[in-house]
Amino acid sequence: MATQPLSQKEIEDRLRELPGWSVDEDRLSRTYRLGDHFAATALVVHVAQIQQELDHHSDLTLGYNTVALSVNTHSAGGAVTEKDFELAERVEGIAPGHGAN
User: Fold this and answer.
1) CA distance 35 to 28
2) What pTM was estimated for this model as a whole?
């Protein structure tokens, strides 16, 4: 069964459950600011493991002390789907409690 794009209302409702996340240009995204480069690198490794488990991969950008994620579902025409929110929720579950940009 194909993954269906979420409606704008569904996206808005789901975003209320994920503070710090937003949808920009049909991509679910968030940037985490961490204490240092080692912590940011460790988060990238943990996110990569989650992506492997879900077989759903985001774009990840590693900065000195930041990690930016951006994801949509290619098989749904590049739209935001439930799969993207599942990934975001899993990342939130392992990310340090630091503020987002």
Assistant:
1) 24
2) 0.92
